[in-house]
Design brief:
The chain is an alpha/beta fold. It contains eight helices and ten strands. The strands form two sheets. It has a six-stranded mixed beta sheet with strand order 6-7-8-3-9-10, with helices on both faces. A four-stranded antiparallel beta sheet has the order 2-1-4-5, with helices on one face. The model has no long low-confidence stretch (mean pLDDT 95). The structure holds adenosine-5'-diphosphate (ADP) and magnesium ion.
């Protein structure tokens, strides 16, 4: 589990509506060690989602390359799991059938894929009674838990999360981040997670990267050395507050 993720000299220009060029990202380079949890923060429109789509192999950069353990990624791979703010579940499939989707696409037989999906439910914080529920019966938080299960069942080496809890209320968000932290410490994928929540970033990350306004470049790279396991109560510690202040200052850099 885990892999070294490297972005080298990435640059992304979109074609603007007026026919000109919109510089969305870069140039930027960074490397994430295998199994590390990185949070990415920055102003809206600064290119964070663009960067995630490039790292996922969904969007070819205008220049530069992405490598996974020194092997270039140029298209989506099942070693890289991706999750967005919107759970995007298939409404006609039950919870376990949604979670098992990637195994089904990979041709895994029904019995073993459903077994795997069911065995993930406790870690996802989903009671067995939800196994056969449909997405319409789930709260937003539960739907995101299912979406997380759908990605984790592939045992990805890299997990890319684009504001995965952005639409959830504060309490639900806290609970699901704690569960994510637990699953990450068991499976140890390399994680890059976009968030707007400074406390969530400090709670989860080993390292916080801050992107500038468009075109997004890395303007700060802040190590989070708080000991693990971490708890919500750690946010009352002085060290936590100092990190929050440091991140807030970096985000205010013009
Ligand atoms: N497909 C696209 N075509 C043109 N411009 C785009 C496209 N996608 C995003 N943009 C623009 O690129 C910039 C960066 O967008 P995005 O990566 O979504 O930023 P963030 O996720 O940090 O809010 C924004 O100005 C956005 O409007
Ligand atoms: Mg975005």
């Amino acid at each position: 589990m885990g892999a070294v993720l490297s972005a080298r000299d990435l640059l992304l220009d979109y074609r603007a509506a007026d026919g000109g060029v919109l510089s969305a990202l870069g140039p930027l380079s960074f490397q994430v060690a295998s199994g590390l949890f990185v949070c990415l923060l920055g102003p809206s429109g600064g290119g964070k989602s663009t960067l995630i789509r490039i790292l996922a192999g969904l969007l070819p950069p205008t220049a530069g390359q992405v490598y996974l353990n020194e092997i270039r990624i140029a298209k989506p791979s099942n070693r890289v799991g991706l999750m967005f703010q919107d759970a995007n579940l298939m409404p006609w499939r039950t919870v376990i059938d949604n979670i098992a989707l990637s195994l089904e696409l990979a041709g895994v037989d029904k019995k073993s894929r459903l077994q795997k999906a069911v065995s993930l439910l406790p870690a996802l914080g989903l009671g067995a009674e939800f196994a056969h529920a449909y997405p319409a019966e789930l709260s937003g938080g539960m739907a995101q838990r299912v979406a997380l299960g759908r990605v984790l069942i592939q045992r990805p080496d890299v997990l890319l999360l684009d504001e995965p809890f952005g639409a959830l209320d504060a309490f639900t968000r806290e609970q699901i981040s704690l569960d994510l932290m637990q699953m990450w410490s068991n499976l140890r994928p390399t994680v890059v997670m976009v968030t707007h929540n400074i406390d969530e970033a400090i709670l989860l990350a080993d390292r916080v990267l801050i992107l500038s306004a468009r075109p997004g470049r890395i303007i700060a790279d802040i190590p989070i050395t708080l000991p693990r396991p971490r708890r919500i109560e750690d946010s009352y510690r002085a060290e936590f507050g100092q990190l929050a202040a440091q991140i807030r200052r970096a985000l205010q850099t013009p």
